[in-house]
Specification:
Layout (H helix, E strand, L loop, with lengths): L1 H5 L3 H10 L1 H11 L4 H30 L4 H10 L6 H18 L9 H7 L2 H4 L5 H14 L1 H27 L4 H22 L2 H32 L15 H14 L6 H14 L3 H26 L5 H5 L7 H19 L1 H12 L22 H5 L7
Length: about 400
C-alpha cells in the first residue's frame, strides 16, 4: 500500500497495486470464520480481472511515449504530442477508471464488498476498501485524463448517488452488524465519488476529507463490532438489547462513532459531507438533492443499530452471558480515534489547508490549449503535493 501511494513510475505502481492483492486475499482466506476462501476468491477475481485491462492500457501508453514516468506522461498527454486520438484516450482512461472503481468500490462493482467485510479479520477489513482506489482516481484519472474524466463525470455522479441510496437502503434491511457496516462503507465511499466527479474545489476537498473520515470512523466501527463479537459470539443484532447498562464505556464509544459516521456537526463526518454536497450543488442540484436523502437514511440505520443493541429491554443473550466492559488495550485503541473524530470536525481548516493546494489544479475547466511550457495548468503540481513521500520514484 505504501508503494501504491508513493510510486510515480506507472509500471512500478502497477507492481505494487497487484502485490497488495495477494496478502489481502491470503489473510481473508485464512482467517474468514465461515466462507473465507470463497470471499477471498471473489475479491481476487473482482480486482484482478479489471487490472489486466489496466496493464494493457499502461503498456499502450508506454509504446507511444517510451516512458512510464508519470510527470512526463502527464505533460505529453496534455500537449497532445503522443498523437493519440480522442477515442483511444477515452478507452485508455476507461481501463484505468474501471480498475480503480472496482477497488473503491463504485456501484455496481461492489459485489465483493459485503462478503469480504464479513469474512475478513478486523485489521484487514479496515484497509480493504476505499483508500487505494480513491487515491488512484485522484492521481491517475484526474491527473492524466482530465478531459476524459469530465466527459464521463455525469455517469459517475449518477452511479455515486445510486450507490449512496442503495447502500443506505440495504443497510436498513440488515440484521448482521458486519454486513450493515459493509453497506455503510459503500454509502460513504459513494459520497467520495460524488465529490470527485463534481470537479468543484469544495467537492474535491470534501472527497479527500471523506476518504480520511471513512478510514478513521469506519475502522473504529469495525473494531467496536468485533469487540461485541468477541464477548457475545454473534453479529446478529436481533439477539442483543439493553447492553448500555452493562458495558457503558463500549456504549459511549459506539454512540460517538455512530454520530461521527452520520455527520453530526462538530464531528469529522459533517465537514466531509457538507463540502461534497455544497461543492456538487451548483452543477448538479437535482442529484445532490437526492443524495442528501442518503444522509437521512444513514442516520436511520446507524441510530436504529445503536438503539437495538444498547437500549431497550435486556435480551436473554445479554442476561445469561455477562461480559466485561472495555479493557485497557481496547481503551487505548479507541479513544485516540474518538478524539481525532472530534478534532477533525472542530479543526477541519488545518486539514483543508493541506488538501486544497493539491486539489486546485484538478478543479475548474481543462485549458483549451496546453503546452509543455505550462505544466501547472496541466496539473503537474499534483505529484509533489499529493504524494505521501514527496515524489518517490
Amino acid at each position: 500500500m505504501i508503494g501504491v501511494f508513493t510510486a510515480l513510475d506507472l509500471f512500478l505502481y502497477y507492481g505494487f497495486w497487484e502485490l497488495s492483492l495477494v496478502p489481502m486475499a491470503i489473510l481473508i482466506a485464512l482467517f474468514g470464520p465461515n466462507r473465507g476462501r470463497q470471499a477471498a476468491i471473489k475479491f481476487f477475481l473482482y480486482t484482478f480481472i479489471p487490472s489486466a485491462l489496466f496493464l494493457v492500457a499502461i503498456l499502450y501508453l508506454y509504446a507511444r511515449a517510451g516512458t512510464f514516468d508519470f510527470v512526463q506522461l502527464q505533460s505529453r498527454l496534455a500537449s497532445g504530442s503522443l498523437g493519440l486520438t480522442p477515442q483511444a484516450l477515452f478507452w485508455i482512461s476507461l481501463a484505468f477508471l474501471v480498475a480503480f472503481a472496482v477497488k473503491v468500490p463504485v456501484f455496481p462493482l461492489h459485489g465483493w464488498l459485503a462478503d469480504v467485510i464479513q469474512e475478513a479479520p478486523t485489521a484487514m477489513a479496515m484497509v480493504v476498501a476505499g483508500k487505494l482506489g480513491l487515491y488512484s482516481i485522484f492521481r491517475f484519472n484526474l491527473g492524466l485524463f482530465p478531459e476524459q474524466s469530465r466527459a464521463i463525470a455525469p455517469l459517475m455522479i449518477v452511479l455515486a448517488v445510486v450507490g449512496l441510496l442503495y447502500g443506505a437502503l440495504v443497510a436498513l434491511a440488515q440484521t448482521d452488524m458486519k454486513r450493515l457496516v459493509a453497506y455503510s462503507i459503500l454509502g460513504n465511499l459513494s459520497f467520495c465519488t460524488l465529490g470527485i466527479f463534481c470537479f468543484a474545489l469544495a467537492g474535491l476537498n470534501g472527497a479527500v476529507y471523506q476518504t480520511l473520515n471513512e478510514g478513521l470512523t469506519g475502522g473504529a466501527l469495525l473494531v467496536l463490532v468485533s469487540i461485541l463479537y468477541e464477548r457475545y459470539g454473534t453479529y446478529d443484532m436481533t439477539l442483543y438489547g439493553g447492553l448500555a447498562s452493562r458495558v457503558p464505556w463500549l456504549a459511549t464509544l459506539f454512540v460517538i462513532t455512530s454520530l461521527a459516521l452520520i455527520g453530526l456537526p462538530l464531528f469529522n463526518g459533517f465537514v466531509g459531507e457538507f463540502l461534497v454536497l455544497s461543492g456538487s450543488f451548483t452543477s448538479h442540484p437535482r442529484w445532490v438533492g437526492v443524495a442528501a436523502t442518503g444522509v437521512i437514511l444513514s442516520a436511520s440505520y446507524m441510530l436504529w443499530m445503536v438503539q437495538r443493541i444498547f437500549y431497550g429491554k435486556e435480551s436473554s443473550l445479554v442476561v445469561h452471558r455477562p461480559a466485561p466492559d472495555l479493557d485497557f488495550r481496547e481503551h487505548i485503541t479507541l479513544w485516540p480515534m474518538a478524539i481525532l473524530m472530534l478534532a477533525m470536525g472542530v479543526l477541519s481548516p488545518y486539514w483543508i489547508k493541506a488538501i486544497e493546494p493539491a486539489m486546485t489544479p484538478l478543479s475548474g475547466p481543462v485549458p483549451a490549449e496546453a503546452t509543455p511550457a505550462s505544466p501547472v495548468a496541466n496539473g503537474a503540481q499534483l505529484p509533489a503535493q499529493l504524494s505521501v513521500s514527496g515524489g518517490a520514484q
